[in-house]
Amino acid sequence: MANVVVVGLQWGDEAKGKVVDYLSQDADVVVRYNGGNNAGHTVVLGNDEIYKFHIVPAGILNPSITSVIADGVVIDPAVLVEEFGRLQSHGVSLDRLKISGNAHVIMPYHKMLDRLEEESKGAKKIGTTGRGIGPAYADKISRVGIRVSELIDMDQFSTRLSDCLKRKNAILTKIYGAEPLDEAEVFAEYKGLGEAITPYVTDTALFLHKAARENKKIVFEGAHGTLLDIDHGTYPYVTSSHTVAGGACIGTGIGPTLISNVIGVAKAYTTRVGEGWFPTELLDETGDYIRERGREYGTTTGRPRRCGWFDAVAVRLSARLSAVRCIAFISLDVLSGLDKLRVCSAYRVNGGIIRDFPSDAAVLRECTPVYDELPGWKEDISGATSLDDLPANARDYLTHAAEVVGYPIAIASVGRRREQTLVIRPDLLES
Ligand code: IMP
Predict the structure, then answer these.
(1) 43: helix, coil or strand?
(2) What confidence score (pLDDT) does residue 313 get?
(3) 3-state percent breakdown (helix, strand, coil) of the chain, nearest 5
(4) How many whole angstroms separate alpha carbon 26 and alpha carbon 234?
(5) Among 87, 165, 255, 309, which residue's CB has the most CB atoms within a 10 Å radius?
(6) What's the gap between Cα 111 and its chain centre?
(7) How confident is the model at residue 364 (pLDDT cuts 50, 70, 90)?
(8) Using CA atoms, how far apart are residues 219 and 320, in angstroms rounded to an integer?
(9) What stretches of 176-318 adopt beta strand conformation (E)?
(10) Which protein residues touch ligand 1 with a CB less than 6 Å away?
């Protein structure tokens, strides 16, 4: 088997798109299996052309790859169709795109409810992306969601929309005092969107199963980061999907024994968007330095990301949850120029030291980081092509991070472009 799942090991934005792009060079299929357009991947190709993806897998750029949007994704059809237009205007063909009929549709009321629920929470808000993700997944779990297969069948869609709008308009008007949605308007808009999506809709689970059995190389492109997982993340400050590697099975219909490798992606520091605990957060000029050098602003929302030191305790938890074989260590170049670097190797809590990320949010709230301090480096390392090109302090930082996390680093990235990738352990990338 030649499958690999790529997951983020922090709170999202680990540059998984770059790793997926790198691993996809000889892939047959690239799959998105969770989340929706709350995620954003930026891929920079050799000519500095920047592609921003929100729903379509980054593999679409490679004409020999089939790109799949699988069952576990929630799709905002307006955003998807806009993304189609952008890709086509760059000459990217959509011929090899497949969309699961089981994926759920983000409806206008999901986006409205996302914002209204956040507003009503006041200081206790999650800081969501406002894209309707939580309400769409809530409807799916409550068995009242609308699936892509229903969206593209106008008779079914008309009945489902009518039923759903009765309940949602009651909530919008009676609980939140908002304006109701007009059924005819929503139907007209979604009818057109459904038609644009129809040619791509198929049984993706069957397609993927056959591809796996035929030993095709499949790259499963995880969205967000493990610490945002609905079950295992820092609840309630999480997203609403399964971001651990197991989510690739849940979100595609591919069983665990058909997965052969898992690669975790972590930045050389930590970022987080939205609310929630972040023990190593830097609220000083070092945090600003990292944000500006790393261009740490959301791909999807443009929000400035909160920045902090590398948290090995958090990454260790994520690596364990996804049973990764190795780590891709990203954005090492961003740390150039800092005198001293810190790696959080444990937490101090209730007078003691713990090395495992606490599962109890009440304990996590009280944790403060225990840091190992390392000397920084001044050199620009963005032109490095092998480990030997790195200054000794950069190599030591990388080695230390791997040791403290307890998993090997197979890739180090020193810039956004594909060629700024140092492959340290190619054997661990094999599927
Ligand atoms: P939602 O996914 O829009 O419901 O937002 C829930 C939480 O997950 C918020 O804190 C978001 O900022 C965060 N989040 C969702 N997607 C991403 C992502 O791709 N990167 C970073 N944070 C994300």
Answers:
(1) strand
(2) 98
(3) 40, 25, 40
(4) 35
(5) 309
(6) 19
(7) very high
(8) 20
(9) 201-202, 217-225, 261-267, 270-272, 306-308, 310-311
(10) 11-13, 38-39, 126-129, 131, 133-134, 224, 228, 237, 239-240, 273-274
Please report where in the chains the tokens 């593999």 appear, as a residue: 59
Distance from Cα 76 to the centre of ligand 1, integer Å: 16
Instruction: For residue range 407-430, list pLDDT tens digits in order.
Output: 999 999 999 888 999 999 999 998
Distance from the alpha carbon of residue 134 to the mean position of ligand 1, in angstroms? 10
The first and second tokens of residue 185, run together, are 């308007």
Domains delineated in the chain: 4-88+204-429 (3.90.170.10), 104-200 (1.10.300.10)
From 53, 139, 221, 239, the mutation candidate for ligand 1 (largest count of ligand atoms within 8 A of CB) is 239
Report the catalytic residues: 13, 41
- CA-to-CA distance for 52 and 30, rounded, in angstroms? 16
**Cα(236)–Cα(253) distance, rounded to whole angstroms?**
27
Give the Å distance between the CA of 377 and the centre of ligand 1: 32
Residue closest via CA to ligand 1's atom 11 equals: 128
**What are the tokens at 427?**
């054997």
Query: How many angstroms does the Cα of residue 237 sit away from the middle of ligand 1?
Result: 9
- Main-chain phi, psi angles of 336, to 5 degrees: -55, 140
Q: Which ligand 1 atom sits closest to the C-alpha of 275?
A: 10
The pair of three-digit structure tokens given for residue 116, joined into one six-digit string: 């209204």
Nearest to 100 by CA among 31, 153, 38: 31
Q: Cβ distance 232 to 321 under 8 Å?
A: yes
Q: Which atom of ligand 1 approaches the CA of 228 most closely?
A: 8
